[in-house]
């Protein structure tokens, strides 16, 4: 180890003829005065890199006048004056002081933009023209002119005007009067059309992917249409990579054929997710969560797929598998078959200790659920999804020292809409709204008649780049007769608490309770959940960097029964890392409300995943 460490030092001593500090000293220092910061920056940019040898220094000094003139003229100053003062030091860098007097600026007299060809009937160019910022009276800036010219050309290419050209593109400057005119005349010629689309590299049935094409044959060319096709192909989950390539060299009669190159995903993939809560509420131990998800993105040539997830936590193991069958459309119409075995805990159970004159926690309401269901989900456009389902549920639990095992056949209807401001896992703005109705009836094999209504809302917006607000509201309603409340399984009741509800409390531990005498003759009480739910949250987030932010929040609400709404409130904050796989959030929540079954508490929540 010592030999390897000393060797580079020896090499540096042999080949480094100059001390490090001397080798890094510049040969020339430049001071600029007489202009504002923006103009100074432009002058230094035109001067270029500082010289690194004496030969380069001589050439640099020779070109200073031309470089400064070019810098001034590029932003409309054609009568600038430059005074140079060079101090040659025997040792150390020379010093060059540039005193610049820019003079009167040249202003734009008029701007002449003209179109010809099929672009005259294209509203996109009218919209672009309305947004042009060059106006008479402004100081001439050649950079702004070049940007405008490039922008118009780029729009023309993106909309299929591949034969378009400038018939006139110039700036005329009258130096005597400090006036300039700008002319941009563009002839688009004819607009190309989208031709046949061919798919290569897939193993699906012929014609299966054609249903994903979001445009008609011979539609006017537009890159956004090709981007939409690419996005749809990626959404299917079948492909590791997709390339949508317009074949301009094979265009005939104004039609451009489109070739799509596809690379299938591996036959199987495994995803691991980790999370956990720790705190001081009813369960004060650390509660880890581990989820393993196995996906088969394409089972056969018909596009069937499956996703199986196994989630482990000490008291809440879950198994759920979903088999997806595309119906009339690979994305917009799907049939999902679901099978699940789930164990969960709810609320808190307590017994009264006479010697302590207080209640002691003894556990939670436990349930084991079997699920077999079918769901058809259809896209209605503009981000709306409609679904209707039929689920068979059998759930076993012990409540008030009585064993229950009711069965339900739930018919459901849902409607949801999600809008994202961008395609990232941490969108700058967007919103989600979802509504669902479920119904069970004894005549169809259910333990009791139950009508269930839910509505959920979430809204995200970012202000002034670094300031982000996240608002959330969840509502629920169960209609069931008073005598049949105990037959409604815990998974269909409403509880609050947890990282997606009221932070600072454990998952699903808050709700209305009932006091009774247990089989041992003790006074006991049990949080059994409510018929109603109303929970809201408001969170402010501040970006320290694009990848790190701080958050602070207030959560409030509760699950409740008739005329018994008592809001539970928590506050807190945390640190969020915007990782490549989505935001990872470490939050501390502090409960401000003490209920009959819970004292004020705190919990640390670790979560991962997109907020929409």
- Integer tally of domains: 4
Beta-strand percentage? over 45%
With strands numbered from the N-terminus, the spatial order across the biggest sheet is 10-11-12-13-14-15-16-18-19-20-21-24-25-26-27-28
Considering DSSP H and I runs of 4 or more, what fraction of the residues is helical? 10-25%
User: Number of DSSP strands?
Assistant: 28
**Biggest sheet layout:** 16 strands, antiparallel, barrel
Task: Give the averaged pLDDT, no decimals.
Answer: 90
Oligomer: single chain
Q: Shape from CA axes?
A: elongated
**Over the alpha carbons, how many angstroms does the gyration radius reach?**
35 Å
Structural class: mainly beta
Count every helix, treating DSSP H or I runs of 4 or more residues as helices: 8
Low-confidence stretches at least 5 residues in length (pLDDT < 50)? 1-23
| Named CATH topology of the largest domain | Porin
Assigned CATH architecture of the largest domain:
Beta Barrel
What is the CATH C level class of the largest domain, in words?
Mainly Beta
Beginning-to-end CA distance, first to last residue: 53 Å
CATH superfamily of the largest domain: membrane protein fhac: a member of the omp85/tpsb transporter family
Domain POTRA: 192-262
Domain Bacterial surface antigen (D15): 412-610
Subcellular location: Cell outer membrane
Pfam family, one: Omp85
């Amino acid at each position: 180890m010592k030999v390897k460490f000393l060797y580079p030092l020896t090499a540096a001593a042999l080949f480094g003829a100059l001390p490090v500090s001397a080798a890094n000293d510049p040969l020339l220092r430049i001071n600029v005065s007489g202009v504002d910061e923006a103009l100074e920056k432009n002058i230094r940019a035109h001067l270029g890199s500082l010289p690194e040898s004496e030969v380069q220094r001589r050439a640099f000094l020779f070109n200073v006048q031309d470089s400064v003139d070019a810098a001034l003229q590029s932003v409309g100053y054609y009568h600038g004056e430059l005074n140079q003062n060079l101090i040659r030091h025997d040792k150390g860098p020379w010093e060059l002081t540039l005193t610049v007097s820019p003079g009167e600026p040249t202003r734009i007299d008029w701007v002449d933009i003209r179109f010809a060809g099929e672009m005259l009937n294209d509203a996109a160019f009218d919209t672009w023209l309305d947004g042009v910022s060059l106006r008479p009276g402004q100081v001439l800036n050649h950079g702004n002119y070049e940007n405008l010219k490039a922008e118009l050309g780029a729009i023309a290419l993106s909309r299929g005007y591949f034969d378009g050209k400038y018939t006139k593109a110039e700036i005329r400057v009258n130096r005597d009067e400090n006036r300039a005119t700008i002319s941009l005349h563009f002839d688009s010629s004819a607009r190309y059309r989208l031709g046949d689309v061919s798919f290569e590299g897939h193993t699906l049935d012929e014609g299966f992917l054609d249903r994903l094409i979001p445009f008609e044959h011979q539609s006017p060319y537009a890159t956004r249409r090709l981007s939409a096709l690419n996005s749809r192909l990626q959404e299917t989950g079948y492909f590791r990579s997709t390339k949508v390539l317009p074949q301009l060299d094979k265009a005939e009669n104004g039609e451009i054929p489109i070739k799509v190159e596809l690379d299938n995903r591996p036959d199987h993939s495994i995803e691991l997710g980790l999370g956990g809560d720790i705190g001081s509420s009813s369960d004060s131990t650390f509660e880890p969560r581990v989820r393993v998800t196995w996906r088969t993105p394409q089972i056969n040539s018909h596009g069937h797929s499956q996703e199986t997830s196994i989630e482990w936590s000490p008291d809440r193991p879950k198994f759920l598998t979903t088999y997806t069958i595309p119906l009339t459309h690979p994305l917009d119409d799907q049939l999902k078959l679901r099978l699940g075995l789930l164990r969960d805990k709810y609320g808190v159970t307590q017994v009264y200790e006479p010697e302590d004159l207080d209640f002691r926690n003894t556990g939670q309401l436990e349930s084991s659920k079997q699920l077999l269901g079918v769901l058809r989900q259809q896209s209605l456009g503009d981000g709306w999804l409609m679904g209707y389902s039929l689920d068979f549920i059998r759930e076993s639990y012990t409540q008030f020292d009585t064993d229950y095992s009711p069965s339900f056949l739930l018919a459901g209807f849902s409607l949801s809409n999600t809008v994202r401001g961008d395609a990232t896992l941490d969108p700058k703005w967007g919103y989600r709204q979802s509504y669902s109705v479920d119904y069970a009836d004894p005549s169809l094999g259910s333990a009791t008649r139950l009508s269930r209504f839910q509505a959920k809302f979430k809204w995200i917006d970012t202000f002034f780049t670094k300031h982000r607000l996240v608002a959330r509201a969840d509502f629920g309603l169960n209609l069931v007769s008073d005598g049949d409340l105990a037959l409604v399984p815990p998974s269909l009741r409403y509880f609050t608490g947890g990282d997606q509800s009221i932070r600072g409390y454990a998952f699903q531990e808050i709700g209305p309770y009932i006091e009774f005498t247990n089989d041992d003759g003790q006074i006991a009480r049990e949080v059994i959940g409510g018929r109603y739910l109303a929970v809201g949250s408001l969170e402010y987030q501040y970006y320290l960097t694009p990848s790190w932010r701080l958050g602070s929040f207030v959560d409030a609400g509760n699950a409740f029964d008739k005329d018994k709404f008592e809001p539970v409130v928590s506050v807190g904050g945390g640190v969020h890392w915007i990782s490549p796989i989505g935001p990872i959030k470490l939050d501390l929540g502090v409960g401000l409300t003490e209920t009959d079954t819970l004292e004020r508490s705190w919990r640390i929540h670790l979560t991962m995943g997109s907020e929409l």
